[in-house]
Design goal:
This protein is α/β, with parallel strands linked by helices and 288 residues long. The chain has 10 helices and 12 strands. It has a 6-stranded mixed sheet, with helices on both faces. A 6-stranded parallel sheet has the order 9-8-7-10-11-12, with helices on both faces. Helix 6 links the parallel strand 8 and strand 9. The longest helix is centred in the last third of the chain and has 16 residues. It is globular and about 60 Å long. The structure holds (3R,4S,5R)-3,4,5-trihydroxycyclohex-1-ENE-1-carboxylic acid. (3R,4S,5R)-3,4,5-trihydroxycyclohex-1-ENE-1-carboxylic acid binds next to loops.
Length: 288
């Protein structure tokens, strides 16, 4: 790192709180070094309160851009100059690009999810997806999958604080894409099982399976899964969640944790900032 930093090094940030646990700085700085690119990526503890000053600093310091994570992904929108149409539909931004003082917001969480499947030659275009959850990750996944051409998405949520967001996601998809989205109650087990069995991919974006809900899963019966489907958990700590074990017990061939999505959302952001492809295999072997 020392050898790389000089008077021309351009800064890229990550603005979130808490954020010290993030693997993004290691991921991006190693990718910059490998590619010989003169950028440095640093994490900054930024809350909703100091977000306006932090966004201004992107312009003042002529930073190339920033990633944005919780709790700033929605709040940041009003502070930017332009918004990518997909980010506007998602209602959240995780990547900012600074072009000569003009800040544009993108969302690479959804494109990263879709790219992680494409890179493994898995094609869900024209297929049906069953998705649990309607938070940040779930919203980005649903909207991007619909934009890219997934035919049908059944969204499951319980009647909690995210129910209204789940309704909003279904509305946006039905009004603005060719995908047919439906909203279902997670409490309805028979419906949940049917929809999972009817789909090519089941994705859990609820965070169940991660601390403090380790060893928990919305699906506990392997017979709910078909061997040729994809089961995707957005959780990456632990590396194998309860849901993934259930799917593996069912003999499901394509079982994912959230690391691929994490890596590919980073790669999509890397491309936006540098116009170069992240060396994803190198980073994968280094970090994961
Ligand atoms: O959307 C990503 C973000 O770009 C980086 C991140 C992290 O470093 O923990 C998490 C997600 O919110």
């Amino acid at each position: 790192m020392n050898e790389r930093i000089d008077g021309h090094t351009v800064l890229i940030g990550l603005m979130a709180y808490p954020i010290r646990h993030s693997m993004s700085p290691t991921m991006h700085n190693n990718a910059f070094a490998k590619m010989g690119l003169n950028y440095a990526y640093l994490a900054f503890e930024v809350t909703n309160d100091n977000l306006p000053q932090a966004i201004d600093a992107i312009r003042t310091l002529n930073m190339r851009g920033s990633n944005v994570s919780m709790p700033n992904k929605q709040k940041v929108i009003s502070l930017l100059d332009k918004l990518d149409p997909a980010a506007e539909m998602v209602g959240a931004v995780n990547t900012i690009v600074n072009d000569h003082g003009i800040l544009t917001g993108y969302n690479t969480d959804g494109t990263g999810f879709m790219q992680s499947l494409k890179d493994d030659n898995l094609d869900i275009i024209g297929e049906k997806m069953t998705l649990a959850g309607a938070g940040g990750a779930g919203t980005a996944i649903a909207i991007q999958a619909a934009i890219d051409g997934v035919k049908e998405i059944s969204i499951f949520n319980c009647h909690d604080e995210l129910w209204e967001n789940a309704k909003r996601n279904v509305d946006v998809i039905n009004k603005r894409t060719n995908c047919k989205a439906t909203l279902h109650e997670l409490e309805n087990e028979a419906d949940f099982k049917n929809e999972i069995q009817d789909g090519a991919i089941y994705c859990d974006s609820t965070g169940i399976g991660m601390k403090p809900l380790e060893n928990q899963s919305l699906v506990n019966d392997p017979s709910w899964f078909k061997k040729d489907m994809i089961v995707y958990d957005t959780v990456y700590a632990p590396r194998t969640t309860k849901l993934m074990s259930v799917a593996q017990n069912a003999g499901v061939k394509h079982v994912y944790n959230g690391l691929s999505m994490m890596l590919k959302q980073g790669a999509e952001a890397f491309k936006l900032w540098t116009d170069q492809a992240m060396p994803v295999e190198y980073i994968h072997d280094l970090l994961f």
